[in-house]
Design brief:
The complex is a heterodimer. In chain A, strands 3-2-1-4-5-6 form a six-stranded antiparallel beta sheet. In chain A, strands 7-12-13-15-17 form a five-stranded mixed beta barrel. Helix content of chain A is 21%, strand content 38%. Chain A is of the alpha+beta class. Chain A has helices at 4-14, 70-86, 110-113, 117-130, 192-203, 222-236, 239-243, 303-309, 344-351, 402-405; strands at residues 19-35, 38-56, 59-65, 135-151, 156-171, 176-183, 214-220, 264-266, 288-292, 295-296, 333-336, 354-367, 372-385, 388-392, 396-401, 411-420, 432-448. In chain B, strand 2 (38-56) and strand 3 (59-65) form a beta hairpin. Helix content of chain B is 22%, strand content 40%. Chain B is globular. Chain B is of the alpha+beta class. Chain B starts with a helix and ends with a strand. In chain B, helix 1 (2-14) packs parallel to helix 2 and helix 3 (118-132) packs parallel to helix 5 (208-222). Chain B has helices at 2-14, 70-86, 118-132, 200-206, 208-222, 239-251, 256-259, 329-335, 368-373, 424-429; strands at residues 19-35, 38-56, 59-65, 102-106, 137-155, 160-178, 181-187, 194-197, 231-237, 289-292, 313-318, 321-322, 343-344, 353-354, 359-361, 377-389, 395-407, 410-415, 418-423, 431-434, 441-450, 455-463, 466-473. Chain B has two domains: 2-222, PmbA/TldD superfamily (PmbA/TldD fold), CATH 3.30.2290.10; 231-473, no CATH class. Classes of the chains: A alpha+beta, B alpha+beta. Chains A and B meet through strand 1, strand 2, strand 3, helix 2 and helix 4 of A and strand 2, strand 3, helix 2, helix 3 and strand 16 of B.
Amino acid sequence: MSRGLDLAEAALRASGGDDAEVVVHAERSGVARFAASIVHQPTLIENAVVRVRVARDGKIGWAATNRVDSGGFAEVARRAREAADSARPDPNFLGFAPPAHYSDLGGYDEETAELGAADQARLAAAAIEAAGGIGLYGIYTSGVTEIAVASSTGLAAEQETTDAVCLCLAADTEASGWSERTGWRAADVDPAEPAREAAETAARTRGGGELEPGTYRAVLEPVAVADLVRWFSYDSMGAQGFLEERSYFCGRIGEQPFDSKVSIADDALDPANLPKPFDFEGTPKQRVPMIEDGVIKGVVWDRITAARAKNGQVSTGHAPPDAWRFFGPVPTAFDMAGGEASSSEELAEIVGDGIYVTRLHYLSVVDPRGGVLTGMTRDGTFRIRDGRIAEPLVNLRFTVAISDVLGDVPGLSRDRRLVNLNDLYDERFAHAALVPAIATGHFHISGTGSGPGL
Amino acid sequence: MKALAEAAVDAALGAGASYADARAVSLRRQYVVTKNGNVDDLSDTESEGIGVRVLVDGAWGFAGSGRLDESAARDAALRAAEFARAAPGRHQTHLAPVEAHTGVYRTPLERDPFSVPLTEKIDLCLRAEEGMRHDEVKVTVAMIRAQHEHKVLVSSEGTNVEQEIYECGGGIDAYASSDDVSQVRSYPSQHSGVSGQGGWEYVEELGLDREAPRVGEQASALLRAPACPPGRTTIVLSPEQAVMQVHESVGHPTELDRVYGTEAAYAGTSFLSPDDLGSLRYGSERMNITADSTTPGGLGTFSFDDEGVPAAREAIVEGGMLRGFLSSRQTAAQLGAGRGGSMRADGWARMPLVRMTNLHLEPGEGSFEELLADVDDGLYLETNKSWSIDDKRLNFQFGTQVAWEIKDGKLGRMLRDATYTGVTPVFWGKLDAVAGPEEWTLFGLTNCGKGQPGQEAHVSHGAAHARFRDVEVGVSA
């Protein structure tokens, strides 16, 4: 691809001298989706979306199109201008982002970029083959994404990234196990590995038993940790929820409600994650500590929320893609510190008596200010007895306060796993969490659900 | 657009496809959002392209291109065929027969929502916001949306249909907070308001500014309301919460692709099996669920689905017994029953999936007050706040923005942080009354997620107040 900045600058010229900002979000991707070991929904996408934001006398309007020609640019600029003229002056708009210097962080791999439909199908087949006799469900996907920002301030930013993801559910009617791999180099995502791991987990889930509701000690695998932190972040770790007093962090900056072993930052600058040098306003990304040694440190910001704070706060480089704009800025590159445990088995020893959770399902925020979430476990839930992972359990409903789960963390794994957070809605925006497995002293089970398996 | 879709289908057949369809789509969306008296979002987006689906040696392939020209259409067809040919696994795909249709559908409307000046929309939002201002209400939000989708479907079996669908909708939210408590009150729904198929008249009928003072007042009052206590009790669901219950615990589990496991890795499967058709008791005799893609004003209303199957009204649950599934041509053929009719795609870049269209809890009889009159001690639960259900759609937990005690058949004091939980067929078995047609309301939701890559479907549900006995409430951390 590599024409994003050209498109952005052409669209900027078409905006006719207005104060304007153009974001180009382009993708070329393939998803080989499989079920029962058959690729049943293979999807190839090629698209480029151009978003023009115009400021006229302090009034903001924006429009977007995927018609990337002069006619399309003229029309999208006209609509953006019309929207701006209809708006009211925005007291929180302090102008578009100024030009900046961006670091070269990597995140692009030519071999990954060159993967085509036949390759994606071949890699899906490798996963299916590695699962052995059990049915495999999931996806192998790879793609190239380009994000470019140009504005009338002279800002010009572009980044081309690649990503590859293999998500594997090994399952039959009575058993199911999950594993996954994510990276920006396809070479780091061997589809056979998660397929084998998922099949091994599934084999241990047959005959899942019930569990009395109550509060248990637990081990959460990285996939479960990532989901829990992600859902907590929507209201609590972004500036919008913070300013609007929905965040658990409100009134608690500087307090220590979490275990001193818990540190969570957002760090898109880390090449071990899916690195990104700037956000969707072109602001350079910062590493933002959100919880450090159990102490609440802060949230992530974009330019609008920073202005709303009226306290000198600046953007941390977390303006979201258009599709998420109603959430405001949110973390997209979680970086949770690991601990001392050499494995999940060692964490089970620390827990002694409790439950082992591989994956979570369908989380929802019950009480944002209280940091209370609910959801289900699935695809690998086990009892821990005498410090060992023991018999399988049915899927469990949990209703937990994050301050309880992360308030008592007797151990974390040394190794961390990069967990995919991209559900592939809207334009491709690969993002992930680099997190360890954790042991917690407090995981509240409020009900039981279906057994493992399809 | 028709010529491009025809060219794509020709190219696919030339590349060895035994079946092909192409959808050329042009989509425009507009949002007006105000927050705390300022314009927060004023956006106008358009997307156009073509999605080509092919069957080669029994395997599906799909490719989408964001360019509406003949070379892009043909190229998408060839790429789809290449992907299908490379797909691993033993493929046996059969499609339920459908008569080839030609036709045109256009949403009936009085006033094109895109012809309404943005300033008029902003003024309505700001008026509604003004009405929500109240002690301790820290954030007010008003939103109006409009959408126009123009799509042409051409298939290798002779289907050639053109549809033009207009949607619009809106909603308001008031967020109140004090000390360490935050509460929200919304109208008509928390989930981006509600939408319907139609013109600007739909937004006007919502009465956002009319309802605003109540919304603001209740948000503030929730801060001082006691929390919903735990226990087992009788609950009455508002129509808005009843449609969420239908959506999650009836709509998704009756999607036949989930029953066959093809959504297993992401959205999950279903507790239902194909053999349950006609024999499974889903709920009490008061439970009647209908899938109806002909409902006037429904977001799932059309003349033809995205496989060209004509719209219809069909029973899903009748007298508490499972009578039907939501299906595609492929899953209907697999089941040996049904005809498809629920295949829908999110824009041109996604493959159609089995989705809800309009799925309704049919009304019973009597008024809301009559439903309450038969409750000595219970809860009235209004406006969804949180929602979660397991991967087979059995164990669910919902939270509502507000609950009201029911004492001796009358509404009493307000409670906050209400939740209820249950297991789908057990819960529906406890349905003992649904209010009558005069209480039945249609709600359109625009955020139903499914599929990989993800797709958001726009679906409608109608329901009246519904009463359930002996339900666990007040789940807490």
